[in-house]
Each structure stands twice: as structure tokens, then as C-alpha cells.
Specification:
heterodimer; A: 340 residues; alpha+beta; 10 helices; 55% helix; B: 204 residues; Hypothetical Protein Pfu-838710-001; 9-stranded antiparallel sheet; 4 helices; globular
């Protein structure tokens, strides 16, 4: 481990050296090489220091350039050029040397031992991140727990054989898929046509379809002045039912459909429960059109929600609530507890 | 907002209004009613000054609709306005003047009984108690004709027997109910309380 750290430290130094070398070359190229015009005293200083090989070499060169200066100006000019080139060459050589050094050291550094991200986070000394670590741990525990509970739920739910949404089993997945396709993958046009047909069948209620989120349709039913209902359709399969009062709205403040909020009245909460049960009762994936038709026909029985007495006890109110249950065949009104 | 019916509850001889209210409140609580605040309906009457044929204008407020002010003429024509309308009336005092000692109000406890709201109000005219008004509201419905039987049955369980819907509600049984109809019913009762009070007072 410490060996690794030494290597890394070394290579960092090498990188620094390389960078300063390269930086010097570019500086020389842009500013011109200064040693050439330096006076001999300075030159000696640099020589004594022995900073870099290239520097000393170039100073030697410039020495000779100095001597040749005396002989003739033309020659001197030529030598100047040569000196510059030589200096440049030297420094480039140094760079390439440094680079190969760095490569060697780099090769000796093995891959860092793999930590998980969370371990790295815990090593982070920064104060701000200290909270995050504990939070992550907590969520990790939470996820684990959820996983555990979910697997328990699966084992309990799998004991129940009555299923609406089929979980594909390995044996007959294909068969079920075909079955589901018939009900779910219906072209929008035929759904629209069915809704239009239903709307015409019941003149005193208005039935319309909206598609705020594409594929799935929201069928809105307004039953006289009694109630409003939304039915979410996947293809022609009823996925969700909610019933509210005529005075209530299914749109939220932003004007978007809100299919989740329950009615604030107990009557319609009960009716919603019963309608959900009915949507399961009328579930028929093989004949989806018939399922919707019979559901709407049954729901139409609620037109007399407030005005019809219970068939069994003959009263309007029981526990201050009118009869909220309708028979699936005869659509006769019953109180919850008076059901046959 | 639902359908409301207002009924006058007779005060039997030998009992005070306050006692009757107490008995009624107990009955509602036995039925399962839960106290849900108080309510107040008040009515002020204005008389036209300039016109040859005097006209009466009633201004009503209801704590259920605190931002609204209901102006009702004798003919039954109703205007529902913001509470700013009160300020307008004070500007119209050259034409309409408030009748003195005619302020009548019904106030009391409000009860919630599943989807019903029951209000038991004691009526006071110029400070003295005149009677008891019971308002029953069925919130989920908007058509009075639909839920009339429900209301009737609930009132029966309170030992209030009614045969017919209130006079001002009768022609509007199959329409969508509006709060203005409640105020019309209150006004009907207020007017009959006033005439009763005028009758009992010895003429000066």
C-alpha cells in the first residue's frame, strides 16, 4: 500500500517536472532564447548551479558563439541560429527523457484496489458530505428491508389463485400474453367508437373519453345530476374507478385530471368501493366490449341513488346513508347490510 | 354545497326556546351528530323612501357563504353579490332606509351527521327569542327532488314530521339547487316570525 503511494508521489513529481520542461520550451519559443544575449557572468552562475543539462549545454554553445562573434558578423549570425536550434533540441530531449521516465513509473503503478463508492464517500474528510454517508446507509437498510417485505408479499400473494393482472408463469406465459393482448391492445379508434356508442345509448348521461397521457384513456361518466365517475381504461380493460358527487370535480387546480382523490362524501366513497368491486365482477378479458357495456349499464342504476328506497328494508336511510349497493343483475338498490 | 330545507320547530307551551334547542341538540347527538362549529343567518330589511308604492328589500348573510351577500325583493327576485354590497346600501340611504328594530337572525350549533349537516338555530328578533329553526342539508346531492325523501326520513328520526317541501323550494325541486334558495326559505320563516310578533304586540 505504501509502496503504491510512493510510486504515485514519484510520478506526480515527474509530471510536475515534465510540465515545467514543456512550459519552458514554449516560453523560449515565444520570448526567444535569452541565454544567447546573456553576459558571461550570468552564464557562469547558471553553469555553477547546474540546473538542467540543456541549460548548461546551451550556455557552452553560447560561449562558442561569443568567441565567434569576434571573427565575423555573418558567421556570428549563423552560429546564433545554430545555438538556438541546439538549445531547443536539448530541451526537447530532456522532455522526452522525462516522459519516458514517467511512463516507466506509471507502468509500475497497479490498478487501485476497487472500493465501492460509499467507501470513498466515507473517506471524504469534507464536513458537508459527512451527513450523506449516514443517510445513504439508512436508505440502503431501508431498501434491504423493502426487498425483504416484497419477497414476503410475493409468497403470500402467490397463494391467492384469483388474479386480475396475470403474473406470467413459466408454463403458460405465451397463452396468457395472447389473452391479455385481446383486452389491452385495442386500437384507439375502436375504443372511441365504443364510448360514442355508449354515450348514445344513455341519453340522460354523458360519457366522454380523454387521453391526457397518451395510450390509456380516461372515460368520464356524468350520470344525470347525481354523480360523476372516472374509469381508467387500458385498451378496453377497466383499471381504475372513482365516483364523486355532481358538485365535485375530477380536475385539480391546474386543470389536470385527478383520478386519485376520493370524494369528500361518505356516500360516494361507498359507491366507489362498490364500483371497484363491480369492475372486477364484470371483468372479461375475452369479451372486453361486453365487460365495459355491462359495467356502464350497472353504473347507470345509480341514477336513483338518492331517490330509491332499499328493496329489502324499504327505507331510504340506514346509518344515515342511502342504499349504495346495486344488484349486479337486477340493479335493485340495497343497503350494504341488506344485500341478498 | 347540497340541498337544504329549513323548518320551523314549534315551541310547546310551558317550554322556553332554549330548552327546546337543548332537547333537539341532544336528539341529534344521539343520532350520531358531531358538533361542527356554529352558524349565523341574519336578515336586515330596507324600505324604499322615494317610491309611491313602497318596496321592501331584504339583505341576508349566511355564515356558510361568508363572502356573499343575498339581496331579495318581496317578489322573490334574488341577487347574490359580494359582501361589498353592504357598503353600497349605505350609499343608497336616500332611497332605501333600514327599518328600525327589524333585524332578525338565527344562530346556533352546527352538526355533522355523515353527509348531512344539521343546524339548530334560535331565532331572535331585536334581541328577543322568537322561535327555533332547523335546517337540514344533504351535501352530496344537488337536486332537491332526488333527496327529498332522504331529508324527510332524517327529519322523522328527529321527530319532526313534514309532509310537503317548503313553499319556496317546491317550484325548484328538479333544478340544480343554489344557496339562494336556502336564503329564500329563511326569509319566508323570518317574515312569518315578524308577522307573528306584530300580531302579538298590542296596537298602539
Amino acid at each position: 500500500m505504501s509502496d503504491q503511494a510512493d510510486h504515485i508521489l514519484q510520478s506526480i513529481h515527474l509530471v510536475q517536472k515534465l510540465r515545467s520542461g514543456v512550459g519552458q520550451v514554449f516560453k523560449d519559443l515565444s520570448d526567444g532564447i535569452s541565454e544567447y544575449s546573456e553576459d558571461p557572468q550570468n552564464r557562469d552562475d547558471t553553469e555553477n548551479q547546474g540546473k538542467a543539462e540543456g541549460a548548461s549545454a546551451s550556455s557552452k554553445e553560447s560561449k562558442s558563439a561569443q568567441s565567434s562573434k569576434e571573427s565575423g558578423s555573418d558567421k556570428a549570425e549563423d552560429q546564433k541560429h545554430r545555438a538556438i536550434l541546439k538549445t531547443l533540441k536539448k530541451s526537447l530531449e530532456t522532455i522526452s527523457h522525462d516522459f519516458s521516465d514517467l511512463e516507466k513509473t506509471g507502468a509500475s503503478i497497479g490498478p487501485v484496489q476497487l472500493f465501492s463508492n460509499i467507501d470513498n464517500l466515507s473517506l471524504d474528510p469534507h464536513d458537508k458530505n459527512a451527513v450523506m454517508h449516514s443517510q445513504l446507509l439508512q436508505s440502503y437498510k431501508w431498501t434491504n428491508k423493502m426487498h425483504e417485505l416484497a419477497s414476503q408479499a410475493v409468497s403470500i400473494l402467490s397463494q391467492n389463485t384469483l388474479k386480475r393482472t396475470q403474473v406470467p408463469k413459466f408454463t403458460n406465459a405465451k397463452k396468457q400474453k395472447v389473452n391479455m393482448l385481446a383486452a389491452c391492445q385495442v386500437p384507439q379508434a375502436s375504443v372511441d367508437q365504443l364510448i360514442l356508442q355508449l354515450d348514445q345509448t344513455y341519453p340522460d348521461s354523458s360519457i366522454s373519453i380523454h387521453r391526457p397521457l397518451g395510450g390509456c384513456g380516461i372515460m368520464q361518466i356524468e350520470l344525470g345530476h347525481t354523480l360523476r365517475a372516472v374509469v381508467v381504461l387500458r385498451g378496453l380493460m377497466i383499471e381504475w374507478v372513482k365516483v364523486k358527487g355532481f358538485g365535485e370535480s375530477f380536475k385539480n387546480e391546474d386543470g389536470q385530471f385527478d383520478i386519485w382523490t376520493a370524494s369528500r362524501y361518505q356516500v360516494f366513497q361507498k359507491v366507489t368501493d362498490n364500483a371497484e368491486a363491480a369492475s372486477l365482477r364484470f371483468y372479461a378479458p375475452a369479451m372486453p366490449q361486453l365487460a365495459i357495456k355491462s359495467f356502464v349499464l350497472w353504473l347507470n342504476g345509480y341514477k336513483t341513488l338518492f331517490s330509491a328506497p332499499c328493496v329489502k328494508c324499504g327505507k331510504f336511510l340506514l346509518n344515515n346513508i342511502p342504499p349504495t349497493w346495486r344488484d349486479y343483475r337486477s340493479r335493485e338498490p340495497y343497503h350494504d347490510v341488506c344485500r341478498p | 354545497m347540497g340541498v337544504s330545507c329549513v323548518f320551523s320547530y314549534p315551541v310547546p307551551e310551558g317550554l322556553s326556546g332554549a330548552q327546546v334547542v337543548e332537547v333537539l341538540q341532544k336528539q341529534v347527538e344521539t343520532l350520531g351528530g358531531i358538533k361542527a362549529g356554529t352558524f349565523l343567518v341574519d336578515c336586515e330589511t330596507y324600505q324604499s323612501v322615494m317610491l309611491n308604492t313602497p318596496k321592501t328589500l331584504h339583505i341576508l348573510h349566511n355564515s356558510e357563504h361568508p363572502a356573499s351577500c343575498f339581496a331579495i325583493l318581496d317578489s322573490g327576485a334574488t341577487l347574490v353579490a359580494d359582501t361589498l354590497f353592504n357598503g353600497l346600501m349605505s350609499n343608497l340611504k336616500n332611497y332605501y332606509q333600514a327599518r328600525k328594530g327589524a333585524k332578525i337572525e338565527s344562530k346556533g350549533q352546527r352538526f355533522q351527521l355523515s353527509d348531512f349537516v344539521l343546524k339548530i338555530g334560535s331565532v331572535s328578533l331585536a334581541g328577543s327569542m322568537k322561535g327555533v329553526l332547523v335546517e337540514v342539508e344533504y351535501c352530496p346531492s344537488v337536486i332537491a327532488g332526488d333527496c327529498w325523501n332522504l331529508l324527510k326520513e332524517l327529519l322523522q328520526s328527529l321527530k319532526i314530521n313534514v309532509a310537503d317541501p317548503p313553499r319556496s323550494l317546491k317550484p325548484k325541486m328538479d333544478e340544480i339547487y343554489t344557496p339562494a334558495v336556502t336564503m329564500l326559505q329563511y326569509l319566508d320563516h323570518f317574515n312569518s316570525f315578524r308577522t307573528a310578533a306584530a300580531m302579538s304586540q298590542p296596537p298602539r
